[in-house]
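User: Can you predict the 3D structure for this chain?
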Amino acid sequence: MSSDPHSAACTVYFDGACPLCRREIDHYRRKAQHVPVAWVDVSSCDAAELGSDLDRATALARMHVRRADGRLVSGAAAFAEIWRLLPAYAWLARLAARPRLLAALEAGYVAFLGLRRLWRRPGAAMPASARAMPIDPAAVTGGAPAREASARGRSDNGDRR
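Assistant: Here is the predicted structure, written as structure tokens:
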């Protein structure tokens, strides 16, 4: 961890056993030199660093960010939270605040998660629960209520009616 989580603007939980994930986080770390962000490598941290509401399997399944107010967000919403704190990415955070764009970013992130296991460091096994982790829509939207699927002519699972 690079800063005290109690004074951090947010805490980023990432999979350091994934080389691509680690490279992206290293990029954000360089950009966040003057922003108090706590960085937690979930693949090697103590369980206490995760907090009582985040277990290792869940944290390894997708990136999470704990906001300064204590709320956890994951996936595309976690990236948007990081972008919000970094001046160079503020424009991207504003775009990601749009629900449809955030949903598209989340779909891309979920596709990446399907490929991520191919890049993980050998010997850094991903728990089975992390490979098939269900997505919590509230975590993606940051707790914002989702629109009614029926209003778009789709069922709850996304199929056309």
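The mean pLDDT is 78. The longest strand covers residues 10-14.
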